[in-house]
Amino acid sequence: MTKTLYFLLILIPFIGFGQDESFAGTYERHVETPEGSILHYTLELTTDGSFTFHFYRNVNTAPKEENYYGRGRWQVDDYKTISFYQDSERDFNEKHTKKFTGGKARSNRKSPRYKGPREETETLRLFGGDIIEQGLELTKVSE
To answer: Mean pLDDT of residues grouped by 10 in the chain (143 residues)?
Structure first.
């Protein structure tokens, strides 16, 4: 009995520190300008705590097409803010060059207490660090 009690007392502090899987999914934003340029942002947050980012730009001037990639780890803090981290040895190479370290994201979602008929899409607003565009809002497209 006392062994079980000690085990539970040791286990309880770790219960709240798991990754919040409700944020995991794919977030996108697609923009077409009146001049015909295309901007496409994709951020994928996986349940294992890693993320990948892809930014595609096709403009009417040279260079015509550009792709930027980033990857690393993400974590949710006590205030439901997502923080991004990158390891310089593991997360950067010739392809993955975008810096996210120090960057954060805030989720905009419907309150779980709201039971009304209004449908709201979940979004992430990126800010802080070297994020590609401060205040960029991405819409969740899949779990």
So the answer is: 48 44 90 89 95 90 83 88 89 84 83 67 86 84 86
Cis peptide before 34 (omega within 30 of 0): no
Query: How far apart, in Å, are the Cα atoms of 15 and each of 10, 18, 77, 116?
Result: 10, 6, 14, 31
- Tally Cβ neighbours within 10 Å of residue 23: 19
Cα 109 from Cα 90, distance rounded (Å)? 32
Nearest to 137 by CA among 13, 41, 10: 41
Q: Which residues are within 8 A (CB) of 11 and not within 5 positions of it... i.e. 6 or more apart?
A: none
Nearest Cα neighbor of 103 from 134, 58, 77, 78 is 134
pLDDT at 30: 95
Q: For residue 102, what are its two tokens?
A: 């120090």
Three-state DSSP state, 76: strand
